[in-house]
Amino acid sequence: MIDFDNKGFLKLKQHNEYADRVSTLLLDGENVIDAYKSMRDGVVFTNKRIIAVNVQGLTGSKKDFTSLPYKNIVAYSIETSGTFDLDSELEIYFSSLGKIKFEFTGKTEIVEISKFISKYIL
């Protein structure tokens, strides 16, 4: 499983590359909503879950995929970007996993992501 305490994993910028990387994992009726990439790793939000991708090794051919179903979310918190601090954050609390924090750089629709999560957990 991915080490979510590793801060390098969590600086994410919108990028569709990871939507393609997880396409073989998607279920019938599951659609990608948005995809984000850090230096090597990524996160994909679908209409059923969050898929975190950890690229491993020197060549990057080995990957770890962690599936985080919305149904296991018990609470979440967002921090929007400001005038000088352009980063935004999403903290999600899972019933059995604990807290996971995603940090987004650049322009990210963090409020739209939170609305989407709310739709599945409320």
TrEMBL record:
Coiled coil spans: none
Domain (Bacterial Pleckstrin homology): residue spans on this chain: 14-120
Top-level taxon of the source organism: Bacteria
Family matches, as InterPro entries: PHb (IPR012544), PHb_sf (IPR037063)
Name of the protein in its database record: PH domain-containing protein
Organism, as annotated: Cobetia crustatorum
Record lineage: Bacteria, Pseudomonadati, Pseudomonadota, Gammaproteobacteria, Oceanospirillales
